[in-house]
Amino acid sequence: MANDIKTEVNKRRTFAIISHPDAGKTTITEQLLLFSGAIREKGTVKAKGKKSNKFAKSDWMDIEKQRGISVTSSVMQVDYDGCQVNILDTPGHEDFSEDTYRTLMAVDAAVMVVDTGKGIEPQTKRLFEVVSHRGIPIFTFMNKLDRDGREPLDLVSELEEVLGIDAYLMNWPMGMGKNLLGLYDLYNQRVELRNSETDEADVYIDLDESGQVSGDHQFTQSTIYSQALEDAQLLHEAGNPFDRELINQGKLTPVFFGSALTGFGVQTFFDAFIDLAPAPGPTRLADDQIIQPDDPELSGFIFKIQANMNPAHRDRIAFIRLASGKFEKGMNVTLERTGKTLRLAHTTQFMADTREEVAEAFAGDIIGLYDTGQLQIGDSIYEGKQAIKFADLPQFTPELFMRVSPKNVLKQKSFYKGIEQLVQEGAIQLYKTYHTNEFIVGAVGQLQFEVFQHRLLHEYHSEVDMIPMGHRIARWIDPADLDPKMSSSRNLLVKDRFDQPVFLFENTFAEHWFKDKYPEIQLESLL
Ligand code: G4P
């Protein structure tokens, strides 16, 4: 049994793609689905221009109906090269929320897609920081090589400087845009030639011992090739050496070049990714013990809850990352927080184009559990008698704030109840002004406010006024250091839900002003 589980677990690759909007996350996901045979045509992943009302984007049912399968459909599972690949979505744009960060707590690796025309953009950097904190492998795909972009060397040094990670060049572009000849593949010791008619790679030529292509090939006469060869040799001598251990620890990122749109270099990337990305490993428990994935008893934690905002479909889906064991439909587990038995009858797994009932799943997989409101983000579930509680999910520093108050003062009770439950569920963060206790909600994305307001109204019958605030930065301070004179027109002193003091600043200028004035005071942020 444990052997079975081990074999299955070793086939799993569970990862997320992180990028700034428009870098090509959807396009590369689609290529993976195409290679794996999960879809047959492009355009299935995201049907553009079909946004209806503003809630539709986050409405589960609507998303499925309107966008076919959308990459926002959270988890996709495909077979690739004998592996079960689970791709977890990290929604960007207007769908960005704390769930985006929390999803990164449920993966074993991340793929970072960078637009070669733009380099490292803000959202990539923020998502990178969250992933990097976990010390998991990060693979970089430098995308849009079919266009003229920035100098590859420039991109790589920006990556290393801005993100503070070392790069290992898996391959190196021979030209770009219209002049793209192909890839000089250092990892596989071959050249991958672009077929200028189909734009796909169909010619691989092995390198000889000196790193040159063997045989007589026209392209070797071009200056593009000789330049790439020179660069590659320089990288070989002066670049970081390949080190699997450092890759596993997330300290060295393998860098690939290619074009998600044309598919060039994508297969090479995926093949190496499947090879190098780890299978699910141990998971940390609240008491600092660990649980191994091949432990025969099922356990898992909830990292995301997707509430359906359509009042006709009140169902919610709790996403569970399985940490150990084997899941079988209908089995009973214990919900650690309440000690109650939970029957895993209505579960779902996520295929490329359908949602299917899951019959079985293994550690590393994600299952969706239909929930009527008894589950919370961060909950642990386990099979057997030995209680299992996973380490708490981190809290993330909010970057947007709104003042919130009930429209109808006579309905304060439902307002308080709604806020309390939604905060507990992890849907939003709650702050209060330090002395006057006015309510402020904090979020990392605008969508969280919309979901919050909508759910308060529909689930708790509480209509609220929400006033956006100009503050963007939250910094915690040790209560012992707090001095009333620190509070000024350049900041706002609030307390979090555990009554810890927090300063809100409108910008880094205001934060720096504070730091200059009180250099001895430590300002802390969450993750
Ligand atoms: P995202 O999910 O990261 O937000 O990005 P997405 O894949 O939707 O890609 C954003 C835009 O960039 C799309 O163009 C897409 O076609 C284009 N793109 C993605 N990869 C490549 C690439 O390798 N080369 C080039 N040249 N373009 C790429 P769009 O015009 O916004 O949408 P569409 O009408 O083409 O779908």
UniProtKB/TrEMBL annotation:
Q: Which UniProt keywords apply?
A: Cytoplasm, GTP-binding, Nucleotide-binding, Protein biosynthesis
The record lists GTP as bound by: 19-26, 89-93, 143-146
Species name: Ignavigranum ruoffiae
Q: Which residues form the Tr-type G domain?
A: 10-283
Subcellular localization, per the record?
Answer: Cytoplasm
Protein family: Belongs to the TRAFAC class translation factor GTPase superfamily. Classic translation factor GTPase family. PrfC subfamily.
Protein name in UniProt: Peptide chain release factor 3
Main localisation: cytoplasm
One Pfam family in the UniProt entry: RF3_C
Q: Which CDD domains match?
A: RF3 (cd04169)
